[in-house]
Amino acid sequence: MTSPQSPRPAAPPDHGPTFAEAPLPRHVAIIMDGNNRWAKARGLSGIRGHHAGVEAVRAVIRRAAERGIETLTLFAFSSENWKRPASEVNALMELFLMALQREVKKLHRHGIRLSVIGDRSGFSSSIQKHIDSAEALTRDNTGLHLVIAANYGGRWDIAGAARRLAERVAAGQLDPESIDEQSMDEEVSLSGDAPVDFCIRTSGEQRISNFLLWQMAYAELHFTPVLWPDFDGEAFDRALSDFQGRQRRFGMTDEQLEAQQGG
Q: Which residue positions are annotated as catalytic (predicted)?
């Protein structure tokens, strides 16, 4: 805690620390974890934790846009989450629908483009309709690209890409010998966005849980004990500062990196 003798440096409200010239990530992915533990610690129901998590989502979207992040992908609901108690799943679906109904116009006013990735067939027709409407409304926006991963799994994503390539081969449209990393990259979700530079997971868990397995091949990972409802703009800035302190090698040696940077 800052003492009266060492006051916090003056800064514009809600804008966090001033960043050095080190580059920020272009694409940040976040595994939002800890809503239930946050609620349990306060004697609240699990759904109250999810509602609190929505406030954290708003704060992080706002800060990511301020920082000039190109793409922010949030893991909202995995394909494994259907295994949770039916009451919690139903409440999550209601919360997802409410967010689509209430938040999309705000995103649009701020120039944010919204996309949803995942298997939409698992959702109700109402949710699917609102997803389509939200994407159509914000399609031409040029600010932050906000991606919500819902009923999503990395293995599902890769398997679907492989199936589509196989269908093109079977139709005589594609030579199997021409299939490479680039052709696979063009078929997975988010093919038009920069690869994930930086993945944040809250709540202290240290795994990626089947999230963007292809897209995060070279991502820097940041694990924080902060529970998601407590992860605010300041916490996001601290994570970005951590990223700026990393040396990204991409298989190269220190000497090669220095020569590349010097050139």
A: 33, 81
Cα(26)–Cα(126) distance, rounded to whole angstroms? 33
Is 81 noted as a catalytic residue in this protein?
Answer: yes
Q: What's the CA gap between 257 and 251, in Å, rounded?
A: 10
Residue 78 annotated in ligand binding: yes
User: Is 38 annotated among the ligand-binding residues?
Assistant: yes
- Check 81, 141, 210, 242 and give the catalytic one: 81
**DSSP codes joined into one string, 82-144:** GGS-HHHHHHHHHHHHHHHHHHHHHHHHTT-EEEEES-GGGS-HHHHHHHHHHHHHHTT--S-
- State how far the Cα of 59 lies from the Cα of 56, in Å rounded to an integer: 5
Map residue 175 onto helix, strand or coil.
coil
Please answer whether residues 144 and 193 qualify as being in contact, where contact means their C-beta atoms are separated by less than 8 angstroms. no
Evaluated on CA atoms 168, 171, 172, 175, the torsion sign reads positive
The whole-number average pLDDT for the span 16-35 is 84
Per residue in 136-168, pLDDT (tens digit) is 999 999 999 999 999 999 999 999 999 999 999
108 in a known ligand binding site: no
The crossing angle, in degrees rounded to 10, of helices 46-67 and 233-244 is 50
Which residue among the candidates 14, 33, 151, 180 is catalytic per the annotation?
A: 33
Residues 219-244: what's their mean pLDDT?
98
How far apart (Å, rounded) are the C-alpha atoms in residues 222 and 239?
A: 7
Q: Is 82 known as a binding-site position?
A: yes
Q: Model's pTM, two decimal places?
A: 0.87
